[in-house]
Amino acid sequence: LLAHWIHRISARILGRQAAAGLYILFGALQLRLTVWLLKPDLVHVHHLKLDACMCALADVKPLLVSTWGSIRPDEREPERLDNRWRIIRLVMRKADAFIVERPILEERVRTLAGREVLTAVIPLGADPSRFRPFAPDESKRLRKAWGIPEDAAVVLSPRGFDPVYGHHHILDAFAQARPRLARAAGNLARGLD
């Protein structure tokens, strides 16, 4: 919270670029202090974004990074690095291990890191033997309790509201499908991240 207010105030005084730098540095200092106080066995962070950047700047160890959605196997570094690529480079140099969602990304991580680095694959998706639709009776009971008509199509897309998730594609697909559905109910829920 303190970093947020420092960022807002400094943005008015110094400008957005300098304020962003102060925000990142202050966040890294807070992380370093927190790690020093708590002495965690492992620090884990999702995505190659500002929180991962702050962990790398704070030099927290061991640092485990889940890259989910942050890198693509066919993407190449631009000749002139933007902020996103500066973060990727820094985190790749500093992290101790990575979790990727596809086997093809293991080699991509090693290439970006410029070294051998511990990498594990954890595929995205659900195990259908453990996660399956409700039994028809349970489904009817829940629809009634939630006020959803029995013949309505329900679309649930739980995720964080970050552009990388492509919400516009989901909403466009729903808008195209809706005229073909007798009754439709939609729910776009924010994830717990």
Structural notes for this entry:
The structure is a single chain. This protein is α/β, with parallel strands linked by helices and 193 residues long. The protein is built from seven helices and six strands; from the N terminus they run ααβαβαβαβαβαβ. The chain has helices at 2-14, 16-38, 50-58, 83-94, 104-113, 136-146, 167-177, and strands spanning 43-46, 63-66, 97-100, 118-121, 152-156, 183-187. Helix 3 links the parallel strand 1 and strand 2. Helix 4 (83-94) packs across helix 5 (104-113). The longest helix is centred in the first third of the chain and has 23 residues, at 16-38. It is extended. Residues 187-193 have low confidence and may be disordered.
Features:
single chain; two-stranded parallel ribbon; disordered C terminus; alpha/beta; 193 residues
